[in-house]
């Protein structure tokens, strides 16, 4: 029995649970694509293979490691599929992707999920190095069930991969502090290079290298060549991994500036200090650890900070720099806190171990197990519950999928439909689609905006309509609204688009509306309105 609960076996169990949480609901939405960022990476990865052009033509994150990683995986998929007879040439593979991209997205999500599990393993290694084997295991446990990290491990984005590389930078920075050899500096520089070409803020992890160098060498500037060389390695690695950042510099700069000036309707900043509070209360406490879990983190931080080890300053340097950086940005997203999660889990593991050790030293042995179980339940109940609820929500049908099913059953084929972004995925051949253009006019959907299987509207709101009368002039019979109106009500109640939406709602007859069911499924509110022309009235079944 004791042999079964060896550190190796316990770690394997932790990693299995980590993978299980990250697989729960990973198929969400498919074959439809409800995350707006996933197609950016998948489409560019497929384009590299289809056009045999190594230039990703996307540098917004820049996301090069994700795009190239997906390209390698898709090349392997095509090779295996060709051998097994699933693909009959490049054109057939492209057709399969366009008609049903499920397998391509699942492979990409699995790639990110496995990176998430690798991060759990690396947290164990770092925890073992900093605190000892048992605290390292507990740190891995907290990382395995961390709801924010688990959730974003199911989505094809850059956050999880950047977090892994930042953690590698931290590992090599500990090596620099301990050994100070060239191998450590080079390893840290390479990891930092991979971090920033995954996501630009990864460059901030270089602070770990600088702190490790001066903590080892003191205030003296001797051997500056090592950390300067590490910085050069960081930059060279980045441009070797993502050469088109230089070769296609104007596009890269344009995409970078576009990201800098991106101001989405939701997620807007409330100011630096309010952002600090929001990230703490919302992301760290509620969405990740709970107050019990955060108390354990505080215990770990306090006890560890009282120790004389220099490595604590590297931990503090990254935590404070990145936390203040994301709080200073003009928009705020839960996912931006992801790179801090492993570092907080390290302290959670150490705090839990320290707290349990203090309790066990003061109570009779017969009370240790029940007290330990109670303590463990207090700190893990919330994150495990969050993971189960989120996984279940992802596993159930999205409101857009349910709306699609209703529309296909009740809206006559060939109808004229005005639809906006983030609505139900409707087949391109079934209806005559109309969309908004950038000037606020209703225009017929062009082929360039139509996916071979599912219609994809441009990002212009129906609320930007200049003249409501044009609905009748264009012969629009049905208007399908997503949740842009609801977001305007909450975030910009005085916006002129809100008044336009309300006028449309008064003029049309609402025949269908669906909301997400809290703790059951997800998706925006979808409303369908019918507009009957003067000389044309059609019967349509109403939603029950």
Summarize the structure.
This protein is mostly helical and 544 residues long. 61% of the residues lie in helices and 5% in strands.
**Strand percent estimate:** under 5%
Estimated radius of gyration: 26 Å
Tally of individual helices: 21
| Mean pLDDT reading | 90
What's the structural domain tally?
2
Shape by Cα distribution = globular
SSE order? HHHHHHHHHHHHHHHHHHEEEHEHHEE
Q: What is the percent of helical residues?
A: 55-70%
Structural class label: mainly alpha
Describe, in plain words, how this protein is organized in 3D:
- With 544 residues, the protein is mainly alpha-helical.
- It has 2 domains: 7-67 and 106-364 and 380-394, no CATH class; 399-530, no CATH class.
- The protein has 21 helices and 6 strands.
- Strand 2 and strand 3 form a beta hairpin.
- The protein is globular, with a radius of gyration of 26 Å.
- Residues 534-544 have low confidence and may be disordered.
């Amino acid at each position: 029995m004791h042999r079964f609960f060896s550190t190796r076996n316990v770690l394997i169990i932790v990693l299995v649970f980590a993978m299980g949480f990250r697989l729960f609901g990973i198929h969400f939405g498919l074959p439809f694509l409800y995350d707006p960022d996933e197609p950016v990476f998948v489409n560019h990865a497929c384009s590299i293979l289809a056009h045999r052009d190594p230039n990703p033509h996307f540098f917004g994150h820049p996301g090069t490691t994700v795009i190239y990683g997906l390209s390698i995986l898709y090349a392997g998929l095509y090779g295996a599929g060709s051998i097994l007879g699933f693909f009959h040439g490049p054109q057939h593979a492209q057709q399969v992707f366009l008609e049903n991209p499920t397998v391509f997205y699942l492979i990409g999500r699995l790639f990110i999920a496995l990176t998430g599990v690798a991060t759990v393993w690396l947290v164990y290694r770092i925890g073992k190095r900093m605190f000892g084997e048992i605290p390292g295991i507990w740190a891995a446990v907290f990382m395995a069930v961390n709801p924010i990290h688990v959730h974003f491990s199911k989505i094809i984005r850059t956050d999880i991969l950047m977090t892994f590389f930042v953690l590698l930078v931290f590992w090599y920075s500990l090596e620099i502090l301990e050994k100070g050899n060239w191998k450590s500096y080079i390893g840290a520089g390479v990891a930092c290079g991979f971090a920033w070409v995954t996501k630009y803020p990864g460059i901030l992890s270089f602070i770990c290298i600088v702190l490790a160098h001066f903590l080892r060498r003191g205030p003296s500037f001797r051997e500056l060549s090592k950390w300067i060389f590490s910085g050069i390695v960081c930059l060279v690695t980045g441009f070797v991994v993502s050469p088109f950042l230089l070769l296609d510099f104007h596009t890269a700069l344009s995409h970078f500036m576009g990201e800098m000036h991106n101001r989405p309707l939701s997620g807007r900043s409330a100011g630096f200090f309010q952002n600090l509070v929001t990230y703490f209360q919302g992301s760290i406490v509620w969405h990740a650890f709970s107050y019990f879990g955060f108390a354990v983190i505080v215990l770990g931080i306090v006890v560890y900070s009282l120790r004389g080890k220099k490595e604590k300053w590297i931990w503090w340097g990254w935590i404070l720099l990145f936390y203040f950086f994301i709080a200073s940005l003009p928009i705020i997203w839960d996912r931006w806190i992801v790179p801090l999660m492993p570092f907080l889990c390290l302290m959670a593991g150490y705090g839990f171990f320290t707290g349990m050790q203090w309790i066990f030293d003061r109570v009779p042995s017969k009370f240790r197990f029940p007290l330990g179980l109670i303590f463990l339940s207090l700190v893990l109940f919330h994150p495990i519950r969050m993971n189960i609820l989120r996984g279940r929500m992802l596993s159930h049908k999205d409101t857009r999928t349910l709306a699609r099913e209703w529309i296909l059953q009740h809206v006559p084929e060939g109808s004229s439909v005005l639809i906006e972004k983030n609505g139900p995925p409707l087949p391109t051949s079934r209806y005559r689609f109309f969309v908004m253009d950038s000037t606020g006019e209703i225009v017929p959907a062009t082929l360039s905006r139509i996916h071979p299987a599912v219609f994809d509207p441009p990002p212009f709101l129906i609320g930007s309509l200049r003249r409501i009368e044009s609905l009748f002039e264009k012969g629009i019979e049905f208007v399908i609204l997503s949740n842009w109106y609801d977001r305007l009500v909450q975030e910009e109640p005085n916006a002129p688009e809100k008044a336009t939406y309300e006028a449309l709602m008064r003029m049309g007859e609402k025949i269908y509306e669906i909301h997400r069911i809290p703790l059951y499924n997800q998706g925006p509110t979808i409303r369908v309105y019918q507009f009957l022309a003067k000389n044309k009235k059609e019967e349509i079944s109403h939603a029950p």
